[in-house]
Amino acid sequence: MLMPSIFGENLFDDWMDDFSFPDIDKALYGKHAKNMMKTDVKETDNGYELAIDLPGFQKDEIQLELNNGYLTISASKGLDKDEKDENDKYIRRERYAGSMSRSFYVGEHLTEQDIHAKYENGILMLDFPKEEKKAVESKRYISIEG
User: Fold this and answer.
1) What's the pTM?
2) Which CATH number belongs to the domain containing residue 103 in this structure?
3) 92-105 exposure pattern, b = at least 16 Cβ within 10 A, e = fewer
C-alpha cells in the first residue's frame, strides 16, 4: 500500500507506534535510537582505532570508563522540556534528551594510559594498542582531548 510521506518518513509512523511493542530507547532518542553512536573499528599494525559518531554532544557530556577489560562510552544530554515559546509552536521536534552508552571488550591488559581519546567535530576518536600487559581490575576513567 502506498503511503504519503513527509520529510522522508511515513505519515502514519506515529499513529502505528501505538500498536507496536514498546521500545525503551524510543523514550530517549525517538524511533531512530538504533542509529545513535555509530562506530567504525579499524585494526592497525599496532592496535585498534575507533571512530564513534556523537553529533551534538559537548566534550564534558561524554565519559569513558575502563573496567575489567571493558571500555564503556557514555554520553548524556539534557534538553529543557519546560522551554516554551508564546508566539510560536513546534511543528516537529526531533531532538531528545537522555543518555546512551556502548561497551567494547578491549582486553584486561589495558590501562587508562594506553587508551588515547580525542573528540573533534562530533566524532570521538579512540586508539589503543594490541600488546599484552598485566590485568588491571579497578575502575578507571579516561580523559578526552580536544
Assistant:
1) 0.62
2) 2.60.40.790
3) eeeebebebeeebe
